[in-house]
Amino acid sequence: MPGWVLGLESTAHTLSFGAVTADGAALPACIDTLRPTEGGIHPRVAADHHRDVAGGLLDDLLSKHDLDLADLEAVAYSQGPGLGACLQVGAGIARALAVRHDVPLVGVNHCVAHIEIGRAECACDDPVLLYVSGGNTQVITRLDGRYRVLGETLDIGIGNMLDKFARRFGHPFPGGPVIEKEAARYLQGNPDARLAELELPFAVRGMDMAFSGVLTAATTMVERGVPFEAVCWSLQEHAFAACVEVAERAMAHAGKSELLLGGGVACNQRLRDMCSMMAEERMGTSHVPARYYCIDNGTMIARLGWLEHHAGRSTRLAGSAVDPQLRTDATPIIW
Ligand code: AMP
Ligand code: MG
Prior knowledge:
The protein is α/β, with parallel strands linked by helices. It is built from ten helices and twelve strands.
């Protein structure tokens, strides 16, 4: 397939290779995620994991879609934000491939890639993105030629908060799906639970959010004997309501009618339902890409790389260093 673009994702626990065709169509990625059996993610351990699985994973992508590196048109990679050691593995592989095959290198912003794959897959034009992942929680929209962060977490990402809570009570990463199941089970057995929400701190601070307080409060509750599944339900309600509230204010402020979800926590059905309800009440629409495009994946990097490449932007080797703190509004929208 001539003219395809490769995308490498390596911001955190996931290494992924994805691709888009010459006309920008998304090809599902090959993904390998490090799942520590205990503790959180150590950047160096994750980087070693990425290095170990990279060769086999790239081969998988090539054979899955019958792609040939000789037909490559550009190589895109996550330049930031993320864990430095992990980013460097992806950048190193991307540089090597670009030089070896004499094609442009395109370093892209991971958060912007979540927006662009969502826009392409959900056919929405100018959304407010509620980006809810392990390390990030941001509300983003396009204003004056850039994607601007209108609200974000002041401490930990919402996914990280869910993972930490679950881990404390014996459930290894990823904790979000366990909490979702426990919450649903609790609601099934207690149809009136909606009326009896437990009291937890509300995570909104102006237009920003903060999740470490609600994590501590929820943890203490279970330690004091409140059933785990009951706290799971209330924790979801509180944390998701905070995100939805900030997203709603962002839509009102920026005058946007489309809401787009992205990031691993967007796999959660309760969050999806809350977003749909909010958007409908505002006479707007809520969109969620397929689950394998919500989680970190190489295809979204390839899609943004394709857009930037076709708009004439590439990254010189001298400017290809990774930036763990790369800001969403550092990328001018030239596509
Ligand atoms: P990401 O950082 O975007 O790769 O997404 C990983 C995060 O998504 C982890 O914190 C997971 O716990 C979380 N996650 C995945 N599935 C779900 C779910 N169904 N509900 C809540 N969180 C989830
Ligand atoms: Mg992500």
